[in-house]
């Protein structure tokens, strides 16, 4: 659990998760400090939605426990119903009540916990104002744009005064113009609120999350401060999210050796891993030179690969081959005659390759 935090440093743990869901082969353990936002990232099928469903009380795990601010929500023959957990779930779609105006949608949470009509209205208007949507108070959901509806949904979630906020890809259904505004809004209202955010977008993690937990195949494979994980990823998904190449294997005295025997030379980042220990090598696609034929001079890192895809990205093209990526100019694509299926050589200098313990 959060191994980068020294044991002798007191921590205010807001959320403790250690659960297993057998039929989905998910075993997840992590903690979130009070007031922090943690981003759950990983490929499709990694277990992110399952974890969120367990936290929300929509799915009972087979073993383990969930504690929120010390209160046991799941575990030891205890299971607290979703409505009694003090959690709020904001999904990809706003899911507003279509027959209620925006103000009444937001007031629903306070009213359901016993607030008077006047009290609930005041809370609703305060949160609508907080998310810059007070002018929408009298509109019904059908009269709102996607971005407006999601802002009202944020207000509704926060008006319930949750101790834990769960966000499931809140920007996924928005168009490119609405997403940045909602991202800025969340960055403002999530301050000092314990939050778990599921996202596939690197900007969501960078701008909203204090920490990142990376899931692959139902297991936590990496976690830590957001900037550290994305700058020095130790899992393939985090590397891809950050736009980096990652080669996993075992440490050698001057690099990493893959299971297939291919050796990649590099420089240790921080304390060098012991020879034979699990390690990863990370390097930027822009640091890779692409050659139609193996170059002379015996470069230390020359990898023969077959082109799998050519992806135009503005003023350059990303060449994907052998599970790696290289960025080349448009002119280079023509000059090298690059095409899917062509055999090429990727060359990267050893001083561009950072080696990390895994």
Structure description:
The protein is an alpha+beta fold and 358 residues long. It has three domains: 13-230, Rossmann fold (3-Layer(aba) Sandwich), CATH 3.40.50.300; 236-284, no CATH class; 285-349, Beta Barrel (OB fold (Dihydrolipoamide Acetyltransferase, E2P)), CATH 2.40.50. The protein has helices at 48-56, 102-112, 117-130, 146-159, 178-189, 202-208, 226-231, 236-241, 330-336; strands at 13-21, 26-33, 37-41, 63-68, 71-75, 78-79, 87-90, 164-168, 195-198, 211-216, 219-225, 245-252, 255-257, 263-265, 267-268, 278-283, 289-291, 302-313, 316-321, 324-329, 343-347, 354-357. The protein has a six-stranded mixed sheet with strand order 7-8-9-3-10-11, sandwiched between helices. Helix 2 (102-112) packs across helix 3 (117-130) and helix 4 runs parallel beside helix 5. The model is unreliable at 1-10 (pLDDT under 50).
Spell out the blueprint of helices and strands:
Blueprint: E1 13-21, E2 26-33, E3 37-41, H1 48-56, E4 63-68, E5 71-75, E6 78-79, E7 87-90, H2 102-112, H3 117-130, H4 146-159, E8 164-168, H5 178-189, E9 195-198, H6 202-208, E10 211-216, E11 219-225, H7 226-231, H8 236-241, E12 245-252, E13 255-257, E14 263-265, E15 267-268, E16 278-283, E17 289-291, E18 302-313, E19 316-321, E20 324-329, H9 330-336, E21 343-347, E22 354-357
Parallel strand pairs: 3-9, 3-10, 7-8, 8-9, 15-22
Antiparallel strand pairs: 1-2, 1-4, 4-5, 5-6, 10-11, 12-13, 12-16, 13-14, 16-22, 17-21, 18-19, 18-21, 19-20
Helix pairs in contact: 2-3, 2-4, 3-4, 4-5
């Amino acid at each position: 659990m959060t191994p980068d935090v020294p044991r002798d440093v007191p921590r205010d743990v807001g959320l403790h998760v250690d659960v297993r869901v057998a039929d989905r082969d998910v075993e997840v353990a992590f903690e979130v400090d009070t007031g922090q936002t943690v981003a759950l990232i990983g490929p499709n099928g990694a277990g992110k939605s399952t974890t969120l469903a367990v936290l929300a009380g929509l799915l009972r795990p087979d073993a383990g426990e969930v504690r929120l601010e010390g209160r046991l929500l799941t575990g030891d023959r205890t299971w607290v119903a979703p409505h009694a957990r003090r959690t709020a779930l904001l999904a990809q779609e706003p899911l507003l009540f279509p027959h209620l105006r925006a103000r009444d949608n937001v007031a629903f949470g306070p009213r359901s916990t016993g607030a008077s009509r006047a009290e609930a209205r005041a809370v609703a208007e305060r949160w609508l104002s907080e998310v810059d949507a007070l002018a929408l108070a009298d509109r019904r959901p059908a009269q709102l744009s996607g971005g407006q509806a999601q802002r009202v949904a944020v207000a509704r979630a926060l008006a319930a005064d949750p101790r834990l906020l769960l966000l499931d890809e809140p920007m996924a259904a928005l168009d490119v113009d609405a997403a940045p505004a909602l991202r800025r809004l969340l960055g403002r209202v999530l301050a000092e609120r314990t939050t778990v955010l599921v996202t596939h977008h690197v900007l969501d993690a960078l701008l909203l999350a204090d920490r990142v937990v990376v899931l692959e195949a139902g297991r936590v494979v990496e976690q830590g401060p957001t900037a550290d994980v994305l700058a020095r990823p130790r899992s393939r998904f985090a590397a891809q999210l950050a736009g980096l190449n990652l080669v996993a294997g075992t440490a050698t005295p001057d690099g990493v050796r893959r299971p297939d025997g291919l050796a990649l030379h590099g420089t240790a980042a921080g304390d060098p891993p012991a020879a034979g220990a699990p390690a990863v090598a990370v390097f930027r696609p822009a640091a890779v030179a692409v050659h139609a034929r193996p170059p002379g001079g015996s470069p230390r890192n020359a990898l023969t690969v077959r082109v799998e895809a050519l992806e135009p990205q503005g003023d350059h093209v990303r060449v994907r081959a052998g599970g790696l990526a290289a960025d080349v100019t448009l002119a280079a694509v023509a000059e090298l005659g690059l095409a899917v299926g062509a055999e090429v050589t990727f060359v990267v200098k050893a001083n561009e390759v950072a080696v990390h313990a895994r």
